[in-house]
Design a protein that fits this description.
InterPro entries: Ammonium/urea_transptr, Ammonium_transpt_CS, NH4_transpt_AmtB-like_dom. This protein has 15 helices and 2 strands.
C-alpha cells in the first residue's frame, strides 16, 4: 500500500508540474504576441526597437524577479541546493517560471505605451526596478495575502479581493504604471500640429493581427493554468475566456467602425477584463464583461489621443489599465449568485482592491520613472527620434533592399 500511495503521490506531483509548465510556456509565447502587436503598430523606423525591447525586458525581468521580486511577493528564495529545489518533481521551480512570465508582462505592456521616443538602457533599468519591487509588492498583497490586506477586506466586507488570473494584479497594474511613464515622457514629436492630432499609421497590419492572435491563443494558458494544479482546472474558465474574447471582438468591430486596429485589440480588451472573474462568472456574464471592455477600449483610446493629448502608442492604458479596472469590478458584479455566478465575492472588496492596485501602480511607476529620468533621462534626443529608434539605438533597420 505504501508503494501504491507513493506512486500516486509522484504521479500527482508530476502531473501538476507538467500542467503549470504548459501554462508557463503558453504565457511565454504571449510575449511574441506583445512583440508583433507593437511591431505592427509603430512606424517602420521603430520596428527593430520594438522587438529588441520585448526580448531584453524579458531577460532583465527574469533576473529581477528571480533574485528579488519573487522573494518580495512570496518570501521564497532559490539559494537552496538543487536537490532541495527539485523536490516534488520541481513543482515550486515551475510555479516560479509561470509567475515570472506574468511579471515580465508588465514591461511588455509598458513598452507599447512608450514606443518610438524612449531610450533603451534607462528603460531596461526602470523595467527591472518595476518587476523587482512595485509589481511584486501588490502581487504579494493579493495573491499571498501579505500585510493583512486581504484579511481586512474579508473581515470587513465578507470576502477578500478576488483576482483569479490578474485583471488588476497584472493588467491594471501594468497599464497604470505605463500611464505614469507616458506622462513623464511626453508626446512624440510631430504628433500634434496646431493642437490637432496627426495620424501616425501602423506600419504593418498583418504583424499587428499576428500579435493579437498569438496573445489570444496564449491567453487560455494565462487564465486556465492560473488554477496552478490539475485538481483546480475548470472548463468554466476556458469558456468564460472564450466568451469574453468574442464579446470584445464584436463590440470593438461595431464601435471601431471596421478599423482593423480596434478590431484586433478588441478581443484583448475582453480577455483583460475577464481574467479576474473567469473562475466565477456565468458565460453570459463573461460575454457582457468582454463586450463592455471592447467599447471602453475604442472610446477611451480615441478620447485620450484627441482630447487629452496623451500619446499612448498602442493604447495600453485603456486596454490594460482601464479594462483591467473594469475586470476587477466586473468580478464583483457578474461573479455573484444573483447574476448566475458562483458567488463568494464582495463588490466593495473588488472596488477597494482595484483602487489599491491603481494607486500602487501609478505612484510606484511615477517614482521609478522620475528617478531614472533624473539620473540619465528616458527620452531620446529630437535627432534620434527623427531618425527612428532602429538606427539611433540598434544601428540597423527592420528590412533591407539588398
Amino acid at each position: 500500500m505504501d508503494n501504491i500511495s507513493s506512486a500516486i503521490q509522484t504521479l500527482s506531483e508530476s502531473a501538476n508540474t507538467l500542467f503549470i509548465l504548459i501554462g508557463a510556456i503558453m504565457v511565454l509565447a504571449m510575449h511574441a504576441g506583445f512583440a508583433f502587436l507593437e511591431v505592427g503598430t509603430v512606424r517602420h523606423r521603430n520596428q527593430v526597437n520594438a522587438l529588441a525591447k520585448i526580448m531584453s525586458d524579458f531577460g532583465f525581468s527574469a533576473i529581477a524577479y528571480f533574485f528579488i521580486g519573487y522573494w518580495v511577493a512570496y518570501d521564497v528564495t532559490f539559494f537552496s541546493s538543487a536537490s532541495v529545489l527539485s523536490e516534488g518533481s520541481g513543482y515550486e521551480l515551475v510555479k516560479f517560471f509561470f509567475l515570472m512570465t506574468f511579471a515580465a508582462a508588465i514591461p511588455a505592456i509598458i513598452s507599447g505605451g512608450v514606443a518610438e521616443r524612449a531610450k533603451f538602457a534607462p528603460m531596461l533599468v526602470a523595467a527591472a526596478a518595476i518587476v523587482a519591487f512595485v509589481y511584486p509588492f501588490f502581487e504579494g498583497l493579493i495573491w499571498n495575502s501579505n500585510y493583512g490586506f486581504q484579511d481586512w477586506l474579508n473581515n470587513t466586507f465578507g470576502a477578500p479581493f478576488h483576482d483569479f488570473a490578474g485583471s488588476v494584479v497584472v493588467h491594471a497594474v501594468g497599464g497604470w504604471i505605463a500611464l505614469a511613464a507616458i506622462l513623464i515622457l511626453g508626446v512624440r514629436n510631430g504628433r500634434y500640429r496646431g493642437g490637432r492630432l496627426v495620424a501616425f499609421a501602423p506600419s504593418n497590419i498583418p504583424f499587428l493581427a499576428l500579435g493579437a492572435w498569438i496573445l489570444t491563443v496564449g491567453w487560455f494558458g494565462f487564465n486556465v493554468m492560473s488554477a496552478q494544479t490539475m485538481d483546480g482546472i475548470s472548463g468554466l474558465v476556458a469558456v468564460n475566456t472564450l466568451m469574453a474574447m468574442v464579446g470584445g471582438i464584436i463590440t470593438s468591430l461595431i464601435a471601431g467602425k471596421n478599423d482593423p486596429g480596434f478590431l484586433h485589440n478588441g478581443p484583448l480588451a475582453g480577455l483583460v477584463a475577464v481574467c479576474a472573474g473567469s473562475d466565477l462568472m456565468h458565460p453570459i456574464g463573461a460575454l457582457i464583461t468582454g463586450g463592455i471592455a471592447g467599447v471602453l477600449f475604442v472610446w477611451l483610446f480615441t478620447l485620450i489621443q484627441n482630447r487629452f493629448k496623451i500619446d499612448d502608442v498602442l493604447g495600453v492604458w485603456p486596454l490594460h489599465g482601464v479594462c483591467g479596472v473594469w475586470g476587477g469590478i466586473a468580478a464583483g458584479i457578474f461573479g455573484t449568485e444573483a447574476l448566475g455566478g458562483l458567488g463568494g465575492v464582495s463588490l466593495m472588496s473588488q472596488i477597494i482592491g482595484t483602487i489599491a492596485g491603481v494607486v500602487v501602480a501609478f505612484v510606484g511607476g511615477w517614482i521609478v520613472y522620475t528617478a531614472v529620468d533624473k539620473v540619465s533621462g528616458i527620452r531620446l534626443s529630437d535627432e534620434d527620434e527623427y531618425k527612428g529608434a532602429d538606427l539611433a539605438i540598434h544601428k540597423i533597420g527592420a528590412t533591407s533592399e539588398d
